[in-house]
């Protein structure tokens, strides 16, 4: 009976990044169950996968305003909120320390992978991996709502295609949008060209340049 209790106890120990034995530089899949908070007692790790991944999310969203003078990810504001609604989860360790450095999360929506949350440790290598892997996924069929600097990078540096009709955007998102079309900034509109006249707003009281998004990806993948 004692050995059975010990076996069950071992099963309930929360996972840490080290448990995955991930090769350096390789992005691996995580599962929602890897974030389970079932561990109790002295065998629980001081820092588990929730904490390790949340550190990356916190860094990535450190400058993103949530309102009321706060910054961060709007729905993941502490480790216990992971993995949240995200079912597609990936992470990688890129440097000499044993911790993860890059994280990406999303979910399948209307048959396509919709990329959403991101995390990184702030290093050039992790930020570059975020850009490269995001572009590759979008070019192979995933979708992501983007705005600001990351949208500009995906468009101008990677040539990621956009969804450019209101009907297609709403069908892929499953939500209504306030359609803008051509970018409101003339300089940006000219640089992006007619292939990127797919700007819109949603969930915002007033639709202006600062709130605009574009749905990127959605190709043949």
How would you sum up this structure, described in words?
- By secondary structure, the chain is an alpha+beta fold.
- The protein has two domains: 1-139, no CATH class; 145-221, no CATH class.
- It is 28% helix and 21% strand.
- The protein contains six helices and ten strands, in the order αβαβββββαβααβαββ.
- It has helices at 2-11, 49-60, 124-139, 148-156, 166-173, 186-192; strands at residues 28-30, 65-67, 70-71, 88-92, 102-109, 112-120, 143-146, 178-181, 199-201, 213-217.
- It has a four-stranded antiparallel β-sheet. Strands 7-10-9-8 form a four-stranded antiparallel β-sheet.
- The radius of gyration is 20 Å and the shape is elongated.
- The N and C termini lie far apart (51 Å).
- 32% of the residues are buried.
- Mean pLDDT is 90; it is low at 4-12.
The Rg value, from CA coordinates, equals: 20 Å
The percent of residues in helical segments reads 25-40%
Tally of helical runs:
6
Strand arrangement within the widest β-sheet reads 1-4-5-6
Q: Give the number of domains.
A: 2
User: What gap, in angstroms, lies between the N and C termini?
Assistant: 51 Å
Strand content: 15-25%
* Low-confidence parts: 4-12
Task: Summarize the helix and strand pattern as letters.
Answer: HEHEEEEEHEHHEHEE
For the structure shown, list the relevant keywords:
221 residues; alpha+beta; 2 domains; 4-stranded antiparallel sheet
Topology readout:
Elements: H1 2-11, E1 28-30, H2 49-60, E2 65-67, E3 70-71, E4 88-92, E5 102-109, E6 112-120, H3 124-139, E7 143-146, H4 148-156, H5 166-173, E8 178-181, H6 186-192, E9 199-201, E10 213-217
């Amino acid at each position: 009976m004692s050995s059975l209790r010990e076996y069950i106890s071992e099963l309930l120990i929360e996972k840490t990044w080290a448990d995955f034995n991930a090769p350096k530089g390789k992005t691996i899949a995580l599962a929602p169950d890897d974030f389970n908070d079932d561990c109790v007692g002295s065998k629980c790790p001081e820092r588990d996968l929730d904490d390790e991944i949340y550190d990356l999310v916190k860094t990535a969203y450190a400058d993103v305003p949530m309102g009321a003078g706060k910054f961060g990810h709007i729905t993941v504001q502490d480790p216990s909120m992971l993995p949240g609604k995200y079912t597609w989860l990936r992470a990688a360790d890129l440097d000499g320390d044993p911790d993860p450095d890059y994280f990406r999360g999303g979910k399948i929506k209307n048959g396509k992978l919709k990329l959403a949350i991101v995390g990184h440790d702030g290093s050039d290598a992790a930020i570059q991996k975020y850009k490269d892997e995001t572009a590759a996924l979008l070019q192979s069929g995933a979708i992501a709502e983007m705005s600001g600097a990351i949208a500009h990078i995906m468009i101008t540096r990677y040539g990621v295609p956009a969804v450019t009709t209101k009907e297609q955007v709403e069908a892929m998102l499953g939500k209504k949008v306030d359609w803008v079309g051509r970018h409101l900034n003339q300089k940006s509109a000219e640089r992006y060209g007619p292939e990127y006249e797919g700007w819109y707003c949603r969930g915002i009281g007033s639709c202006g340049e600062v709130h605009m998004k574009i749905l990127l990806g959605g190709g043949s993948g």
